[in-house]
Amino acid sequence: MIERSAGILLHPTSLPGRFGIGDLGPEAYNFINFLEAAGQRLWQVFPLGPTGYGDSPYQCFSAFAGNPLLISPQLLLKEGLLKDEDLENIPDFDPHNVDYGNVINFKYGLLEKAYKNLKEDNKKTKKQLEEFCNKNKAWLDDYSLFMASKDYHKGVVWTEWNKEIAFRKEGAIEQWKEKLADRIDFHKYIQYEFFKQWMALKKYANSKHIKVIGDLPIFIAYDSADLWANKHLFTVDEKGKLKTVAGVPPDYFSATGQLWGNPLYKWKEMEKDNFDWWRRRISNVLELVDMVRIDHFRGFDAYWEIPGDAPTAVTGRWLKAPGEKFFNTVKNYLGELPIIAEDLGIITKSVENLRDEFNFPGIKILQFAFGTDQENKFLPHNLIRNCVVHTGSHDNDTTRGFFEKAMNDKSSDIYEFAQKYLGYFDSIEGMTFELIRAAYSTVADMVVIPMQDILNLGSEARMNYPGKLGGNWTWRFTWNQVPYELASKYKEMVVLFDRPPKPRKHAEIDVE
Q1: What is the value of pTM for the model shown?
Q2: CATH of region 5-361+445-496
Q3: Which of 166, 208, 390, 413 counts the highest number of beta carbons within 10 A?
Q4: Is 99 noted as a catalytic residue in this protein?
Q5: From 295, 343, 445, 453, active-site residue
């Protein structure tokens, strides 16, 4: 699928900038320049959708739309849709953490100004906007009406809206489209801006021989345009109540399992039109990225079904999903699928078979490898070529934080084991780089390191604490955290470990 290469995991929200959150403007282009200087060929991001409650990119208002908070005010200024004075009184945002409440108010104020200016002028943009709306009509009409209705109802979940529009009763759609016409057009406009800015950024990355790895959560959010507009495809009753939800059963990490609460798919219903909704979803994401990581890949083989009113994930059952039939159908329509399978956790033989049948690379996390109680399959010498190796993921502590905790835990042999394995016995400051070096040296085709580990940051830079409410997805970096020699240091390691491979001279053989 891709030559031997290296890259960095960094969501755009974590980029530097003046506007309280990273965006798709000049700093994103600077980051791509840094990737190029460091010899990196991969840029991995989280899902790019509009985030809802909890600000998680894995719980979005749409599986198709983009996140308006990523739109760059500087690029809107360049287009003539904002004025210099609009960007003069910027709040004093924390450069290291996103304050989502204040950022949302500030950014949407700018987006509304840009929309107002568009309506008054800019005929060229209006024509391009119309073309965008026609091209994306299949999801954009429902999404923009959903978001406009959500705004009208002060942000509450869709089941608490006026019943006529909440349950799309006869005649209600047209009535509410007319009633909310201007707000609908606003949401269409900001989707146009997101897609335009993102596609220009991706084109720039590709021009530097950098591929973008996206992310696709297997499940959708309950409070989403996808469920609201397609209730027949999900496990809700006629009143919108969840009949069954997603999660995982009890295991070593949790005695009650994990109750995610996402609606499940009615797979039999989806099969009737050859998984049309899913085909459109995958086609849409593959326009935005070059490869896509599917989160919780095992759910395509079997999924844990939990009653909708269950207090924990204990009460549930495994049900088979149409994995092989699903991927064969999608492949018949879309061709070869550049998919990475997130295959972490308790994985059965049938999940491995499904992954390998379609030659999807799996994922290896080096933090899971060390210590006598850990999983030997993640040790660097046990890795295979067709995989992506990370030091950690967004759900892990940073590698420095991980090793600091391990070093101070007298009941664990993780730190001592890692020292012996890596052959490194100096100060803990160097452990992160030694693990990254080990990742680069493996046979794995792809190695992607979180930016926090590239910068050797501690637990203060952790992105997500699973199960913790609030305070997640906020981390940002600044350029003064990036040492001058960092890019050349990684460029040297890229060359040393053939990522990408260098042309090799082969001895000539005389054949009589």
Answers
A1: 0.96
A2: 3.20.20.80
A3: 390
A4: no
A5: 295
